[in-house]
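User: I'm putting together notes for a lab meeting next week and I want to include a structural view of one of the chains we've been expressing. I don't have a solved structure, so I'd like a prediction I can at least talk through. The sequence is below, exactly as it appears in our construct file.
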Amino acid sequence: MKNTQSEPFRDRLIFALDGTGDLAETISWVKRLQDHVGMFKIGKETFTRYGPEIVAGVQRLGGKVFLDLKFHDIPQTVARAAFASVELGVAMFNVHALGGKAMIREAVTAARKRAKELESRPPLILAVTVLTSLNGNDLEVLGFRSSVEDTVLNLARLAQDAGVSGVVASPLDIVAIREACGPDFIILTPGIRGKDAPEDDQKRTLAAGEAIRRGADYLVVGRPIRLAADPLSAADRLVEEMSGYDHGH
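Assistant: Thanks for the context. Below is the predicted structure for the 249-residue chain, given as structure tokens.
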């Protein structure tokens, strides 16, 4: 059963480490923010540069890791990657729902099996639905016949049937996913921006408090904290905004 609603709001804020600099500088961000956020997201850029070393570095400082590599390959390959993710001790990792039900199911099975063998808590496994950088026009060009909203819901239901803990989805899709997948399905939301944030490559975004109000469980934030004049205050403001808008599901 999901217990995110009872977690302190700080624990539901995830800081994205991509773009924070070299290894020493990235670790310095972890040291600065570890008491202000609940988890650190290690994405493709950071993991490609520093590999398991950055995961271990975050964990040594007491931080939890969300390994954001969006595994998407044949089922056996993704199952092995899931197996390895458990061995890294990450708290959360994700797969891409477009890999299909068999791929997702095998990843979930492999992760649970390895966690049981290691007598460790299995990580939360999330499925990515539609990237927040894509909108309806983008999907049409890619050959999708359904709208963004319908595609997201189809993928969320498929992923839930395959056994994942939840999904990574745009804040604009939260309400529909919550309605379709129920109160215990975890929704992690990137694309969190302040109301006066400049435009960037994410097209479907929302402010932090509004995302929580709509039913998000975890928020991933990078640039609004990293580029702030005072990153710690920016993180604290986001937590405050999250706590002010939590009206439950």
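A couple of points you could mention at the meeting. Residues 4-244 form a domain with the TIM Barrel fold (CATH 3.20.20.70). Confidence is low (pLDDT under 50) at residues 200-204.

User: Perfect, that's what I needed.
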